[in-house]
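Bug #77: duplicate submission created two jobs. Keeping one. Sequence:
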Amino acid sequence: MERWEKNCLRHRLLYSDAQDHCFGLPPLLCTMTNNMNPGKSDEVARSPVEIFGPSALRRWLRSSLKMTHSHLGSQYIVHELLHPTDPIDTGDSTDLENPLHPDEILGHNILLDPTTNSWDVLTTEHFSVVAAPILHSIPSLGYVLTEHSIPGKIDIASIQPILTRNKDALLREQGIKNPMTLLRTLQSGQDLRLPDGTVIPAPASRPGRRVVILGDTNDPSLVAPHARDADLVVHEATNAKTFLDPPELTYEAAEENARAHGHSTPQMAGRWAKGVNAQRLVLTHFSARYKGDNGGEEGAMGEGPRVMEEIRQLAVEEFGGKERDGKVFCARDFWSIEVPRR
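Kept job's structure:
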């Protein structure tokens, strides 16, 4: 959505409380808030960093920061997304065993909406976020970020002659010297009425972009109602049947193994993304047995790229075949993808 720098990104969404998903949060928070030298920044007072995640995240992060004597360069808030059976952590000053961290502001306990099986996480000036539980071996979350509608495009070539025709009347009756300034009226969503009786309708607004980011899962069905027509789906593909496996291993066995551990195959990711009519699919969370480096001679495709391309093609087959080949990607560290406006 917006392209924010690290120290301007004030919201963090956690998928689960598994160690590989949360252990990096305390050092990231320290880096984001410049705790190594909090007096160095000459910025105006920054808004708190807001963190959203599962039950017990608030107490765990508070304890981690206290045990490491971490003092932050700005404040932080933890909002917990709770199931009906989750304990509610007050976390306030009455909690003598684990009171607030000095840099902590008490967050909200957001309860699951039983009618939609989802949480309304937050709404900002630019986008809203909804979360829903997804199936895994431990509690896990999927997030849907939806950009607000944006003003439609104005056809200046067809409108300019009409404004020019009304130029003298606009100056005489309304004191408008430059008729082109009226384009702001159309851009704000209001129809434009001109002295000669012409009404120029405001352009229809364009739907905002939608991005779906799933944590570890073998079934994200509860996210699907919120994910329709997504511009981008980020889905795990932990296990796959590839050339690295013995020939006797079947796809069915590979999928059964993935599901048994709460994970997905590339084919499962492709099918789910196609089912919600997604435009693009990014695969993530690959098994550690797949090498990330080239691993081959110069000029040759090594084992790492070969297996990742095979994994990508397995997802392509389920996502829509050759016509969608350029819409499926395997994520890499520090890699980014542009989500174009509709």
